[in-house]
Amino acid sequence: MQDLATPFLTTRELADLLRIKERKVYELAAADAVPCLRVTGKLLFPAREIEAWLAHHTTGNDAWSTESAQVFAGSHDPLLEWALRESGADLATHFDGSENGLDRFADGGALATALHLHEPELDDWNVTTVARRFGHAPVVLVEFAWRERGLIVAESEVATYADGIAALRGRRVVPRQPGAGSQGVLDHLLHTAGIAANELDFTPPARTETDAALAILEGKADAALGLLDLARRYRLGFVPLLRERFDLLIDRRAWFEPPMQSFLAFCRSERFREKAAESFGYDISGFGRVHFNGG
Q1: Are 143 and 291 in contact (CB under 8 A)?
Q2: What gap in Å lies between CA 253 and CA 61, rounded to an integer?
Q3: Which site in 3, 104, 176, 265 is 20 to 30 Å from 187, CA atoms measured?
Q4: 281 and 229 in contact (C-beta within 8 Å)?
Q5: On the CB side of 123, how many CA atoms lie within 13 Å of its CA?
Q6: Residues 84, 46: contact at Cβ < 8 Å?
Q7: Each residue of 93-123: pLDDT tens digit?
């Protein structure tokens, strides 16, 4: 690793110093987010200015991305959506699946993202995926809640689905968009049960947990892999299949800013605990537990 003893650093040396890819260094330079000179078509980084720049960023700012957008991205969850709204955090939301959220987060398009990516080989959730993508970045993965997930069906049809996933053959099933955590879980369950995708009649995908449940309520599909809370809310049947851990990946720089502090404080409030208790299938006893700390 470069020790800042030379007058200038090359792109590769700065990338090694910051433990990021050279592509990210070029992005920082293009955004004027890092001190640099352009000499005969090459980028050079003054060592003294880089040293001062690093010292300025040791209080929580990071060099792995530029300023993140004030957006909470990732997987949709009704309790999370409610908490963000009621906390007064004044954060926009863009819930379009776990993988989409990670991509947005990596590109600075979100300061936090929600995810529930199953890692069946380790019987775990999210940690390996986050460590692989953000192992050297200043991020923290914290627990939001455990959730009950299973098949949402018409109340009168619960007995028909007593065999769980095996009962989906030939049925109209609501899929989720590619990269959604729910779709990954469904794909794994189908594979484990030896069911090929062409044995199911897939409807157009639902992009949120609520949309998946509404498809059953409106008779547009026979079954969806969804949350117990939404099944109960819409008076639908539910066949339990698994518990999943729903986590939040947060930029450590944003953690200490007012919007995120407002949200986190609200999630520790009595009002939030009462809402979670009134909901179905949530266990928030581990809220805030750190499952990964990068950087």
Answers
A1: yes
A2: 5
A3: 104
A4: yes
A5: 1
A6: no
A7: 999 999 999 999 998 999 999 999 999 988 8
